[in-house]
Structure formats: C-alpha cells, structure tokens
Design brief:
single chain; alpha/beta; Rossmann fold; Dna Ligase, domain 1; 7-stranded mixed sheet; 30 strands
Length: about 725
Amino acid sequence: MQCITGPYNQLDPTDLAPIFAPATVAVVGASDRPDSVGQAVFKNMLQNGFRGTLYPVNLKARSVCSVRAYATLADIQEQIDLVVIIVPAAQVLALIPQAAAKGAKGVIVISAGFRESGPAGALLEQELLAACRQHGIRLVGPNCLGLINTDPAVSMNASFARRSPSAGHIAFISQSGALCTAVLDFAAKKNIGFSKFISVGNKADIGELDLIRFLHDDPKTKVIMLYVEDLRYGREFIETVREITGGDNPTPILAIKSGRTSEGAAAVSSHTGSLAGSEAVYTALFEQSGVFRAQTIEDLFDTAMAFATQPLPRSNRMAIITNAGGPGIIATDVTINSGLRLAKLSEETNEVLKSHLPATASIKNPIDVIGDARSDRYQAALDAVLSDEGVDGVIFILTPQSMTEIEATANVIPALARRSGKPVVASFMGLLDVSKGVEILEQNGIPHYQFPEAAARTMSALYQYSCWLRRQHLKEFDLTVDGPRVTKLIDQAMETGSHYLGEIEGNEILAAYGFPVMPGSLATSEDEAAAAVALLGRCAMKIVSPQIVHKSDVGGVRVGIGTEEAARAAFREIMAAGRQVQGAVIRGVLMQKMAASGVEVILGIKRYATFGPLLMFGLGGIFVEIFKDVSFRLAPIRRNGAHHMVRSIRAFPILNGARGAALADVTELERCLMRLSMLAADHPEIAELDINPLLVHEDGAGCSVADCRILLSPPPADD
C-alpha cells in the first residue's frame, strides 16, 4: 500500500483548533484499572480541570473515576470534537468512522503497535491515516504521550504524563514521549511553564510544521522548542519556518536533533521507526530556517527561558557585573568566544560607578563590585550600565559571600531590567545558599543559570537571533544557463549506462551553467599531448579514468608542463602510473591550460532522497577531508545563502586578505555557488558532484575550475 503523505504547506493549521481547544472529548479506553494508561489519561483530564465535557468510553465499565461511562462512541448523545484513543492497535482503525459519525475533527492515538513495531504495524498506520483523511479527521500520533494545553480557558491534559506543567509561554514539540515526561519533571524544578506540550509520536499525519504554524498564531506562545529525531520534508520546512522565525511577526524556534552520530542514528531508527538524517543536512536546514540549534537538552531550556522573557539585544556589546574576579573572567572568555564583545563604558557611566563603588572595585568592564557588595552596590552598578547607550545587555553574576544580600540583590534586578528594555541574564552561583534569590529571579522573569558560562552562551543566542531578524537581503545575481544542453548530456550518459562523468564531460556540463572552465583536450598519444601544449601553452595534465577518482594519489597529475618534450615525457609517466591501478580503464590524458594561481576551494553537491540536493563549500585541495572546513546549504539558495556559506568556514580570512594577502574574488565565488545551486535544483539526476579545486583568483580576476567529477543516478520517484 502506498504511503499517504502530502506537503505540509497543503495542510490548514486551523484544522488543529478542535484538537487543542475542544468543547467535548471522548476518551476511548478510559479505565479505573490502577497504573493503566487509560486511567492515567482520564485522571489527568479530570484533575487538570478540563473546561469542556468529558466522556469516558469503556465497553465493560459503568463509570470511570465516578464519571458515567459509555460502551461505544455511538452511545454518546452529544457531538464530540476530539477523541483520545487508548486501545490495542488492532482496534484503532474501526474507531475512526465511529468518531466521524459523532462529528469529531481530531483524534489523538496514544496506542502503540504501528510503524515503530515493524512492517505489519507500518501497513496498519497507513490504513489509519487513509481512514482519517477519508473522514476529514486530523491525527496526532500514533504511539505518542498525548498533548497538553495550559490555556486557562481549556486546561486540557490529554496525556499519561506523571505531572501537569504550569502555564507559561513556551511550546514544546517532541517525537519522544519518554523525553516529554522527563522534561516536565525538569521544568517543574526550574519553574518553567508551557503554553502547549505535544508528543507527536510517529507523525502519521500531524507533524512539526503543522504544529509550528498553529503555535505561531497562538497568543499564549512566545517561543517554540523542538526535539527532533527525523524530519520528512526539507524545502517546505525551510520556506515555512524562515517566514515564522524572520517574518513580520516572528516567533523564535529552538531545536535539538538526536542521532548526530551513526550510532545515535541507528538508535533513533529502532526507537521511532524513522531514519535519522545526515548531520550536515540538519545543520543546513536549521541555519537556513533561522532555527537556533541547541547542543544539549539543558542548553535548549536555558535558551528558551531567555527567549520567553527577555527582549533581544540591539547589538553584541555586553556588560558583566560580578562580585568575584574568577567568575567574571570565565564569563568574559565565553562572552568573547560566543561572538559577543565587552561594551566600552561611557565616561558618564564610569563617573557614576566611581561615585557608588569603593576604590578597590573595578569599574572597567567586567565590573567587579567586590566580595563585600550589598544589594545597594549591585543596584547602582546595574542601573549605571543599563543606562549606558553603549551597552546592549547585562550578564549579572553573584557568588554567595557571608555579607552578600542574596534576596535583596535578586529583588533589584527585575524592575531595572524591565525599565531598560535590554536583556539581563543572571548567574547566582551555588545551590542551597542562593536558592531563595533564584526563586525571586524566576518568579520575575529573569533567566537564571547556575554557572556564568551558560548565561553568556544564552545571551549569544539572543544576539544571533537578533542578527537573523536584521539580516541584509542582498541583490540577486542575473545568471544565464543552458539547462537543455545539460539535460541532453545527462540523458546521453544515462542511456549508455554511464553513471560517472569525469572532467571532460563534467567540464562541459559546468560550462553550460556558466562556470569558468579552462580550455583543454583529451590526448591519447604523446603526439597529441605535445600538440596540445603547442596550442594552449603551459598545461596541467591529468589521467582520465572512471576508476581513478583521486588522480594525484596514483601519480596521475603533472602541472606546469610548458614544452612539447616535457609533455611527451609526462604523458608516458602518467599512462604508466595509470596502468598500475588494477581494473582501471584509461581513456587518455586531459591536457588543460594552466590557470592563474588562486585560493583552492571545493564546491559540491550530494542529493538526499528526502531533502533534495545539499550544497557544500569549503577549503579545497587534497586535504579537504582532513581539515573538513566546510559549510552546507540545501538547494536552491539565494545570494544571502551563498554569502553566508563563504563566510562560515574558518578559512574565510584567507579569502579576505589575511596577513597582507590580496583579496580574493569573493563576489565571483558567490556567483559560482549560485550556479551550483541552479544546477543541483534543475537536474535531479546529479547524485554527487565535486569541483575540487575551484581556484579563486584576486578580486576582479574571477575563478577557474581546476577539476571536477559528477556521479549520476536516476532521480527518486515522487511520493
């Protein structure tokens, strides 16, 4: 049976209203049996104070939790908006037409035993989805924990989680139900509230993008958090989420992706029935979408707390206030290494600080109010730096000394922070001694971190998002390409069964898309090699064989060949080296005019069945796999994407004139990346492509393709 899926952008997020704010809910499988999922879900609905009408459905029970029970959905007289299903997987399918007959627009299938259990379960899940589509019902799950809506007008906990969260402004979407329960426990300890809390399970119907669209329009939600094991759409995710994170009414989105290692990906597959995607793909996906990617779950929550409560900094100029030198130095190091900088305080601010702080204090940023500081000294310092126009945010550090007024100091922060309109994050270091102060901070919306490193990294995340919102939109290049020519070349190769294209055919394809390819010819004899040098001048000579990919490794490359005699000798040597490679079919030697010197970079394409073509850019040459200094984007990209790719690698200063070197032609390099993007998007038969190296010459002198290879494969069938 064909899997029934569809692009997220064809699904109407308003369809989710009956699921999140139903007036009537039926729980099929509700039970009084102790420690059962049916009991847990129904008790959560009751004890959480659901504002609508609740119907337990149980074939044998007359009541559940002292509420009258119904044998079937048909026995309920009222219309039902939402049906929560907790019965064995084999019984779920029959309930869908019954739910439709009662007017239900949504179902939450908590039951397991579907795609995650194997082929039979996968088939059952497809049949379930087909039934829901047939009856116009939206589906959460199956194999999920359920969902929670803390809106006081709804107060619905349709899950079997052990606890209900307090109300807040963070929405959490997770593929892992077990993680959800741990997160709820963690959040309770940290006094973190949620607007919505959703376990998506197998995502047979409703997935992350449906929920992101819905939550973007939710007035109770200020920030969205994702725990992702896999995403099934690439381009749709980028286009949708980019508008949500960076449009006129932006909502920040934070994500953590599991399965970053091959071992982790295997664990994900067995846990959810979903294959984890490539690490590079998800890095590109999140960067292009404006999604902040957390490295740990703790990092995810640290950042979410700040996004939910703090304004964004205008720039990256930070002030650090501390009562201890060591933590201030640590915070300074992390601040600088996170892309922030220490603010230079104005003379006026310095004078204010001098008038309030003792002579032993340091008024230079980081500001050390020293260990005997009481709340009034902290207050004066915070007020002074927040009033400074050259300060965009404050990292506030307190260590509990015997004379420190912990609670009083905590009380001075919220009002000053709100009045300034600038972000303030705090680190009251320690645990027991500072606990009451931490409670004051959390109750007043000041993000608190046990250590200053986390506070600095969180401030960096706020700044990164403010940069995303203020990003410049560069004028697009006007590029002309010959797509039909490339289609013909690819078709000819595929018809002959050739899936590997070396430099000769590859250069022809690249030339059709406007890449600067050096002139050359194939030599099959010493005479032809000599004639090529006479015609072209100094040449690079490279062996041509589908079986020899890394030519220099086998002695198959010579450069700077400028005489006919040298060409003949090089031809003999290259051919002899090629014959030493077992199974290699040698077509001859490519004679190519030597390009001017330049910075060696690599451009590449790798196509993924789910996400499409992934573009790669980085430092090139024979050591590319050792240095791994590369950046990625999913095609197609805009010029902004090309601009960012070039500047994302560690070696960008080499292109930008480091140590007195000439500036490289970065604008032409960006054009090449745009041409690569067009080539990848236009021709799905290109499975892999390497241009290595592309020589980037001095500014204004352009680029030159020095080597390339292309691997073809039939494009994947449409879903």
